[in-house]
Design goal:
Elements: H1 2-14, H2 19-31, E1 33-38, H3 44-52, E2 57-64, E3 68-74, H4 77-85, E4 104-106, H5 130-138, H6 143-154, H7 158-175, E5 183-187, E6 201-206, H8 233-251, E7 255-261, E8 268-273, E9 278-284, H9 287-302, H10 304-319, H11 333-345, H12 355-360, E10 369-370, E11 373-374, H13 393-405, E12 412-413, E13 422-423, H14 448-466, H15 468-471, H16 481-484, H17 496-500, H18 505-519, H19 523-531
Parallel strand pairs: 1-4, 6-9
Antiparallel strand pairs: 1-3, 2-3, 5-6, 7-8, 8-9, 10-11, 12-13
Helix pairs in contact: 2-7, 5-6, 6-10, 9-10, 10-11, 13-14
Bound molecules: guanosine-5'-triphosphate and magnesium ion (MG).
Magnesium ion binds next to loops.
């Protein structure tokens, strides 16, 4: 029954750890782990026996990324120290090596190995292709099942998250040489529960620990550190990141393509970590972004439909080039996620509480003010009571497209703090209030053309979902959610060339449907589309 379902949902949350507790646990596991390049035909048993000489192994897994690698987590940090004692810096021929002792290692196996032993299982770290996704979707029986299946296919795996924390921990070994109290923390989609396999690793160099020394007030006598001064907070951040960028470039094993992007709104060091295949963005002094990640995580935990809808909408947006991996006037994944949250706050009854409500429920230890912005939100999920809303994902998806297909973007802004649209304070195309820095717009970059493309696609998808035909599980043409991923016929002319060759019979079925709509006077949809043909 419905009552049972809701009780079940609530009891699940009572046992749910807080965001901070989960992050701490993962960080601590990463500190006890090593990353080892190894032969692909490795004898797993011998490998583990060899490493076990240094202590008990808690967990391990293998994966492929231009060669085979193993992540090995020991049960105690002493094992890492013991292991390091036994490892040599290689003597390289014709070259020289920077003698930096990291936890990125190579496993050497003398002579050739017999392949008679069983091969280890390699864990996949990349997302399925669009064809594989379509195949998976075609096997499901409803849009609800399709969206659940999509989430499971794209979401970060347990192993992938461990690897992300390990890469942060490896980087900390470098930055820790300058700032022993520092922590490198992942934020963004690595931790906000909306990450898709293959997404970048956003990191923060957290220097808070440095300020945490107990300041005993006593006789009035005290000592303080002499420090180098910079013109501003931003200048100091830039100077720290520039040194770290240089260090990662010259000393960091496996770190390549280091770029210092220090003039950005949020200065960062970007690099590729080859052994993991991750693109990494290291920022500093970015506590608000961490709080935004916690907020999205919390919303994602409250109701399973949130993540399914976000994964669906993000996938739909990516396929139709509404979002892009290149920065520009596009809507970002972050903005899209906030838009889904806002939409779910508007349901009747609401599926998600407002940000103001999450603040009201906060306990004294949740108090958080960052640079004058009150970022307080409740951390104990069991304090949040939800209303009874049993809408299906199919209904929510349809209504999402209708909602944004008709949203008064010209005069209203999206505000998840109030859970209501507000009068737009500026004339930018899309205004989504920054949840914590409330005078800022997170979608300031979006131009009118990109917003129009989004609106046109929302209308087209809403219309497609109204056609019973696409809901019929038909022979071999994509149906349900998969039909929404077919090339758009009304908009997205800017990406036509890339799409052209993919126009297949299945989409001509939809094109016919749409043509019939135009004849019936579906002027708006058709017009929107053609208005964008120059984009
Ligand atoms: P992916 O596209 O999967 O990487 O999603 P993401 O959420 O990680 O986005 P991204 O890597 O672009 O940014 C990382 C985090 O930075 C986001 O989760 C937000 O917390 C924050 N962020 C990104 N863009 C903005 C912005 O325009 N304004 C603010 N205030 N924060 C942002
Ligand atoms: Mg990211």
């Amino acid at each position: 029954t419905l009552a049972e379902k809701i009780t079940e949902r609530i009891s699940e949350r009572i046992f749910c750890k807080t965001f901070q507790a989960i992050q701490e646990e993962r960080r601590e596991q990463a500190e006890r782990s090593v990353l080892i390049s190894c032969p692909s035909k490795i004898n797993e048993k011998k490998f583990l026996d060899y490493l076990s000489k240094h202590g008990t192994i808690n967990k391990h897994f293998f994966y492929n990324s231009y060669g085979a690698y193993a992540v090995v987590e020991f049960s105690s940090r002493e094992s890492i120290a013991s292991l390091k004692e036994s490892i040599n810096i290689p003597a390289v021929e014709h070259e020289a090596a920077v003698p930096f002792k990291s936890r990125l290692l190579s496993f050497k196996w003398p002579g050739s190995q017999s392949s008679s032993h069983p091969m280890p299982k390699f864990k996949v770290q990349s997302p399925p292709s669009i064809n594989e996704i379509n195949q998976l979707l075609s096997e499901k029986d409803s849009i609800d099942e399709q969206l659940q299946c999509l989430t499971e296919a794209l979401e970060l795996t347990e192993e992938n998250v461990s690897l992300r924390f390990l890469v942060c921990s490896l980087l900390r070994d470098i930055t820790g040489a300058y700032f022993p109290e520092c922590i490198i923390r992942p934020f963004g989609s690595t931790v906000n529960s909306f990450g898709k396999l293959g997404c970048d690793v956003d990191m923060i160099l957290d220097l808070e620990g440095i300020y945490a020394t107990s300041q005993k007030k006593g006789s009035g006598l005290s000592l303080e550190y002499q420090v180098k001064r910079g013109a501003s907070e931003r200048a100091v951040t830039q100077s720290i990141l520039s040194v770290i960028g240089k260090c990662v470039d010259q000393f960091g094993p496996g770190c390549v393509g280091v770029q210092n992007i220090l003039q950005a709104r949020c200065p960062l060091v970007r690099f590729s970590h080859q052994p993991s295949g991750f693109q990494c963005d290291l920022t500093a002094n970015n506590r608000v972004a961490m709080k935004s990640s916690e907020l999205l995580f919390l919303y994602g935990q409250l109701d399973p439909r949130v993540r399914h809808l976000v994964f669906g909408v993000r996938c739909w947006a990516r396929v139709h080039s509404i979002t892009s991996s290149i920065p520009g006037a596009w809507i970002t994944n972050f903005s899209l996620t906030v838009m889904v949250v806002f939409f779910l706050q508007q349901r009747n009854p609401p599926i998600l509480p407002t940000l103001d409500r999450l603040k009201e429920l906060a306990g004294p230890s949740d108090k958080c003010v960052i640079e004058g912005n009150d970022c307080t939100i409740v951390s104990d999920l069991s304090k949040i009571t939800l209303q009874q809303n049993t809408d299906t994902l199919e209904k929510l998806l349809q209504e999402f497209f209708e909602f944004y297909g008709n949203f008064p973007f010209n005069k209203a802004s999206i505000n998840i703090r109030k859970g209501k649209e507000q009068t737009k304070p500026e004339t930018t195309a899309l205004y989504i209030q920054n949840p914590f820095e409330t005078t800022l717009n997170i979608s300031k970059n979006v131009n009118a053309t990109q917003l129009e493309r989004f609106v046109a696609l929302c209308r087209e998808s809403a219309w497609l979902l109204q056609q019973k035909e696409i809901l019929n599980r038909s022979s071999d043409s994509p149906w349900g959610f998969a039909a929404l991923l077919l090339p758009s016929v009304t908009s997205g002319a800017g990406v036509k060339s890339r799409r052209k060759r993919k126009l297949e019979p299945a989409s001509s079925r939809i094109k016919n449907l749409l043509d019939s709509l135009k004849i019936k006077g579906g002027e708006t949809v058709a017009k929107k589309g053609s208005a964008n043909s120059s984009s």
